[in-house]
Amino acid sequence: MIRHLIIKLTEKETSMKKLFISMITTFISLALLSGIIVKAENYNVYSDRDTRLQQIASKDIKQFNKGALLSVNSSDHSNNKIVQFKKGFDLDTMFKKIDFEYIDFIGNNTTSLFEVSQNDYQIIVLYYLPYIISSEDVIIRKGTSLPNDPFVWRQWGLEKTNYFNVWENMLSSQEVMTCVIDSGISRNHPDIVDVDVRSGWNYLDSGSVVIDPSGHGTSVSGIIAASTNNQIGIAGISNSAIIPLKVAQDNGDITTSNTVKAVYDAVDIGCDVINLSLGSQEYSAAENSAIQHAINNNILVVAAAGNDGSNDLFYPASYLNVISVGSVDQSLTKSTFSNYNDKISLVAPGELILSTGSKSTYSRVSGTSFAAPFVSAVGSVLKSYDKAINQAQFLEVLKLTSSDLGNVGYDNYYGHGLLNIQKIVEMFDKTIPMINVDEGWKFNEENGQWTYLDNNGVAQTGWLKYRDSWYYLNKDTQSRETGWVLVNDAWYYLDEAGVMQTGWIKLNNNWFYLQNSGKMKTGWLKAGNTWYYLRVSGTMQTGWVKLNNTWYYFNSSGAMQIGWLKLNNNWYYLSKSGAMQTGLINVNGKNYFMESSGRLR
To answer: Is 182 assigned a catalytic role?
Structure first.
């Protein structure tokens, strides 16, 4: 191929190399402009995924050669793009036309979702822009663990969640599969070797998961399902089968493209629970869609709330419907590192948690990464009682059974409280009926829109208050609005999650002000001790403006100026009302004459 020819040139041929590269570049440009097909090698882009799905839940451990990618298997994802094409788009034509530098299919059979290199993306846009639904940068995630403390032999987390009172009732009556999307698993660990660990998939090297260099995924898996009552090491909460889906590199980096791929695969193999002990503050539409797809397919999705010690949103935990788990220490106080916001569902033990480590070790680990698997494990136990349990039901069970901490009722630090395993098991032993299956937010995968159903399963329209935030549901489509929306002759702005905004917002380099009611403000506005003027369009005025035959001046931050003002070496005087003065004026006992243009004579 062309780039291979370029690579083979020797360093001694510098001048000829420059000429040759110039000629090749010209040829490529002409080829693109004239529609010449630069044909890729014959390749079935879906074949790797078919192989993956056959192997992931298998008990046979195999290694495969890297072959999922066209042409070049680049390890650097930082500049790559995630691209989704419209349904019905002829992908085979694109594969024949473009010689891809890097491409990987990360969706499922109904989602044309690919990861491509930056260079390939530019060529795709050149040819196929009308067929692209969306595109976004690949985001590099990090695992949410903290540095480990010295080794000790005590599982205080199980004691605080009342596990020991009901552990004999935790044995599964039917097979349950928990997908741990993480760094892998040390399957020969003495407390893991007898666990039902399936083949899984290594999204970095294409093959079964056989090791876990960092130990992060092994610690998460040990909390969920380490062998119990075997006179070795620690006790796991559940005896769920573990499906390790390795997405984390040795340095902890995790691409959203690999996470998306793993989630779609988890759905198609029939996974029951997904644990996501990873994340960052960046939102990914592709990752959100994949997770909502999983939830719509009756999978319980649990994620770590993040270790920034801030109230920033942290994804994937902060996506709608995901169960976001914060961390508490042994005194049941929120861990200093644990994030706090209105997306927190509950808390679980997350400091100095004893679990299985890399190779055959045991480690004390800290982080919301290790609080999340407590909840995932309980989810797998509930799935063993009843496979039909869905995300909304699971969240309701957690609300009803959690032990309240912090302020009375729900709060942003502890959510609905501390996980209480004993209460959950006792609830199911008494066969307490579940909540309405249809209540809450629902994601329509066909149109990518959200709707909200009340406890009778009826779709809501108009304004809706949910967790102290306001949303607006279109009266015709019943879908959640985003962006600008006109309601009763007033404009409102809803962010990408549909939340109504208030206060100052900046959009396309223009400032707008939204009142406490959410209504866009126009005309004069006093914020603090400063006056602003907002045009009919809502945009903040800067510079000179004439209102009712009077001139006013607003600086670059939009604040109305008063007193003396120097512009372009000319002096102007603005009264306390902001009005530009003309004629004879007296300021501090001195007379000045201002011309009709407002300039000082």
So the answer is: yes
Q: How far is CA 76 from CA 79, 160, 280, 592, in A?
A: 7, 43, 18, 68
Active-site annotation holder among 48, 99, 120, 182: 182
Q: Report how far residue 575's alpha carbon sits from residue 564's, in angstroms, rounded to the nearest whole number.
A: 9
The single residue of 77, 189, 216, 416 carrying the catalytic annotation is 216
Give the C-alpha separation, 225 to 121, whole Å: 42
- Is residue 369 among the annotated active site residues? yes
Q: At what angle do helices 372-385 and 391-401 cross, to 10 degrees?
A: 110
| DSSP classification of residue 27 | H
How far apart CA 71 and CA 110 sit, in angstroms, is: 25
Please name every residue paired with 137 in a beta bridge, in sequence order, or none if there are none: 81
Using DSSP's 3-state secondary structure scheme, residue 219 falls into helix
* pLDDT band, residue 439 (cuts 50/70/90): low
Contact 367, 349 (CB under 8 A): no
The tokens describing 238, both together, are: 């559940």
CA distances from 280 to 305, 338, 404, 451, 456 (A): 10, 13, 28, 26, 36
Q: Please, what is the end-to-end C-alpha distance for the chain in angstroms?
A: 75
The pLDDT tens digits for 271-312 are 999 999 999 999 999 999 999 999 999 999 999 999 999 999
Assign residue 329 a region (left: φ > 0; alpha: ψ between -120 and 50; beta: otherwise): beta
Q: Which of 112, 257, 369, 380 is catalytic?
A: 369
Q: Which two tokens stand for residue 369?
A: 């990464």
3-state secondary structure of 37: coil
* Amino acid found at 591: N
Say how many C-beta atoms besides its own lie within 10 A of residue 429's C-beta: 11
Q: For 31-84, what is each residue's pLDDT tens digit?
A: 333 333 333 343 455 566 777 777 777 777 655 443 333 333 445 677 899 999
